Amino acid sequence: MLADIITIGDEILIGQIVNTNSTWLAEQLEAIGIKIRQITTVSDNRQHIIQTLQEAEEQSQLIVITGGLGPTEDDITKQTLAEFFDTQLIENQEVLADIEAFVKSRNAQMNSRNRKQAELPQSCTIIRNEIGTAAGMWFERNSVVFVSMPGVPFEMKAMFSNSVIPKLKAQFKTPEVIHFTVQTFGTPESVLAEQLEEWESALPSEIKLAYLPSPERLRLRMSMVCADKESGEQLIAEQYLKLKEILGETIYDTGDNYLYETVGKLLLERNLSLSTAESCTGGNIARLISSVAGSSEYFKGSVVAYSNEIKKNILGVPEQILIQHGAVSEQTVIEMSKGVQKLMDTDFSIAVSGIAGPGGATQDKPVGTTWIAVANKQKVVASKFIFGTQRDINIRRATATALNMLRLLMIEKL
Length: 414
Hints:
There is one protein chain. This protein is of the alpha/beta class. The chain folds into three domains: 2-171, Molybdenum Cofactor Biosythetic Enzyme, Chain A; 176-254, 2-Layer Sandwich (Alpha-Beta Plaits); 259-410, CinA-like (Maf protein). Helix content is 42%, strand content 25%. The chain has 16 helices and 17 strands. It has helices at 10-13, 20-31, 46-59, 77-84, 93-105, 112-116, 153-171, 189-195, 197-201, 229-247, 259-269, 284-290, 308-313, 319-325, 330-344, 391-410, and strands at residues 2-8, 35-42, 62-66, 89-91, 119-121, 125-127, 136-141, 144-149, 176-184, 208-214, 217-226, 251-254, 274-278, 299-304, 348-354, 369-375, 380-386. The strands form four sheets. It has a six-stranded mixed β-sheet, with helices on both faces. A five-stranded mixed β-sheet has the order 14-13-15-16-17, with helices on both faces. A four-stranded antiparallel β-sheet has the order 10-11-9-12, with helices on both faces. Helix 2 (20-31) runs parallel beside helix 7. It is globular. The relative contact order is 0.08.
């Protein structure tokens, strides 16, 4: 079964917002065995939308549309769909009641634009929006299903997950699709591919392998389409055991966890606490750690020691070390890690100091130079890295590297 994804909105075409809806929808559809033929973004223009729908109808069995369902004048998706399906807009009392209840829950007053959102094409099946005012629409014509949903990501995701996917599964027989993701860190993609060459060439033909790199991790995703889910999962599990033998601690988790989630899980399971002292990462490590629900059980806090004054006066880095070795040095991060651990009385600590860029480099310390230290009560381990020239990427890499060093220290592999 093939699907087209169509996103509607001038704001996407001019780069004002990032089109995350299409990426998410593609993942969800692929996960239930529906292949994506094409992803298209169109302007808020009636003729452009109709032409795109006509082309998609000729090629795919499912067309998923997001955007253009809001209360403003440029939101023309409903009117265009009514024209495309040769029907008329009528006020739907069920949707109107939903909108009234939603507006009332926000202590706001209904207005004419809110009421107009209850006008929907007469021939569609309504998809109720439980967390917003724009209802979704389901059409069928010539064995093709059209689903139109709001463009607001959290509204669209809730509607698609709770209403559309169950309806698709009930109406279409789709194959079982299994994905198994292995999370790795610390080995470049080319090196990892070389290490896995023999294993990869011996993979059963049903299993497809994808390398998915980013600054924070390198994901290895094994996928297969099968008639029997249990036997497929068993086959992938066997291959994972072989993969684990080759890569060892390069694998930090399976599933979709980032390093900060895996580290948090380890800290929680072992009843251990963490503090961070950050310079070039500017609190990014603390931000990620504390973004996990329940992190207060293991994360005590952070000192963003951007200046030497804070390194000295708050973290206790001796002034002589800062003068002799500089802020970006092994000696400084070691003292930072000891200082924050003592200050917050934690079992573990992380300290990071570097030159994120684009300025601040010297002949001996180019942009990207970063020192990271991780410590427990018994020892401190510090390492130097040179990440690159892009500030945002350097921060992300330093953050992930620090978290991975902490993970390795906790499992006594560092």
